[in-house]
Amino acid sequence: MAKEYGTASPSRMLENVAADLSGEGLSNQTRQTLNQHHIWAMFLDPDGRCIWETNLPKDIPSQYTMQDVAVFSKGYLKDYPVFIRNVENGLLVLGYPKDSFMKLPGNYLPLRAVNLFPVFVTGLLFGDGLLLFGIYSVSKWKISKNTEPILTSIETLTTGKPVDLNIQGELSEIAECVNRASRVLSRQNQARVNWISGVSHDIRTPLSMIMGYSDRILETPGLDRKVCQEAGIIRSQSAKIKDLVQDLNLVSQLEYDMQPLHKRFIRLSKLLRSFAADLLNQGIYEKYSIEIEIDSKAELVEIEGDSRLILRAVGNLVNNSIHHNPQGCRIVLALHATKEAVCIVVADNGTGLSPQKQKELEKPHYMESTDERLDLRHGLGLLLVKQIVAVHEATMKIESEPEKGCKTTLSFKRK
User: Fold this and answer.
1) Is the dihedral angle over the CA atoms 168, 174, 176, 181 positive or is it negative?
2) How far apart are CA 85 and CA 91, in angstroms?
3) How do residues 333-385 score in pLDDT, each as one tens digit?
4) What would the mean pLDDT of 248-263 be, rounded to a whole number?
5) What is the CATH number of domain 6-95?
6) What's the DSSP call for residue 103?
7) What does DSSP say about strands 302-305 and 341-348: parallel, antiparallel, or unpaired?
8) Which pairs with CB-CB distance under 8 Å and at least 24 residues apart come from 33-41?
9) Which of 98-102, 200-204, 312-316 has maximum average pLDDT?
10) What is the pLDDT of residue 1?
């Protein structure tokens, strides 16, 4: 449609003109309305003769046959879109300007097509729904496929371990951000380990000199008893510092996967007996006793691990029992086996730990505490045990009650 006629639309004008129609034609007001909108009108009698007309173009005939009426009634008359209404004693014809309306003469449909139209629409909607669901499923699968390694990598980053993602597509920028964060963390972790290693190295030299001079003082004949006692304290405290530095260095290396593991199949029963023999040969105070209990089912069991680190873990647990029971205690090293795991148990019948103390020891960075009342040596020792257990994919469980001793179980999966 070239022009919007509004109140002069064909249906409304046909109604108004038909209402105004009389034997003498149209009123002046209706004629003015037709003139205003450039609409022409004529009235045909039953024989096809034009009885009256208004604004009729020169190229429009004034006489029509039945065939002519049948042709233009559904379309155009000399390219004028025409609209008709059957009134009393004749036919009212309104003609609008050329290019004002487009008429579609073929406005009919087979009944079968009409009946099938709801089925067609339903099928079309169902097909569109399936298509949308398919697109959604594929999109969700692609997103899940790419987001899963990203989430796994972020979880890995929280443990301080490096990651390297290779993802293409929409999530490539996120993957690159994760990789950059990983590289930054790796540099920071490496710097932290290097710093701890450097400090440890710098401490060893003066510490060795202190221990050497304390040994020379202790070996001096005729030394005053008080001086000898103080030299012994210097030597023992220096040894503790040395152990602390070694533990700190090993903890940092294990925490950031910078400690090389030398795994091989080892028999834990043989390892525990060797540890106990070395401990007794080094000399232990009489107020402490060491016992070994090895289950027959665990005698020949082997696991894949680093024997040096496992011995270090057991040694730390034994040292904790000794350190926290200065009055003496009974220490038991036990080995038990099930179908799924083999367990090393270090237990004592000493003072035990309160629930609050156990909670403090379970903190991942308990060694960072600034409370002087807490035993940092104990916390670092357990942290090292946890790290050693973690790299062996094992578990650690501490059971203790005040005045009823302490029991620590290290469970290693059987291969």
Assistant:
1) negative
2) 6
3) 999 999 899 999 999 999 888 777 777 666 544 444 444 433 444 456 788 88
4) 70
5) 3.30.450
6) -
7) unpaired
8) 33/8, 36/8, 37/5, 37/8, 37/13, 38/96, 38/97, 39/8, 39/13, 39/94, 39/95, 39/96, 39/97, 40/80, 40/94, 40/95, 41/17, 41/92, 41/93, 41/94, 41/95
9) 312-316
10) 41
Query: What single letter denotes the amino acid at residue 212?
Result: G
**Lookup: tokens for 92:** 């009212």
What percentage of residues in the chain have a pLDDT greater than 70? Answer: 89
What topology does CATH give the domain 264-413? Answer: Heat Shock Protein 90 (3.30.565)
Cα–Cα distance for residue pair 274/271, rounded to 1 Å: 5
Distances (CA, A) of 375 to 31, 134, 164, 315: 111, 62, 39, 17
Give pTM, 2 decimals. Answer: 0.50
User: In the predicted model, what is the mean pLDDT of residues 99-110?
Assistant: 74
Give the tokens for residue 330. Answer: 């009974």
Name, in order, each residue with C-beta under 8 angstroms of 203's C-beta and a sequence gap of 6 or more.
241, 245
What is the H or E stretch that residue 85 is in?
strand 80-87
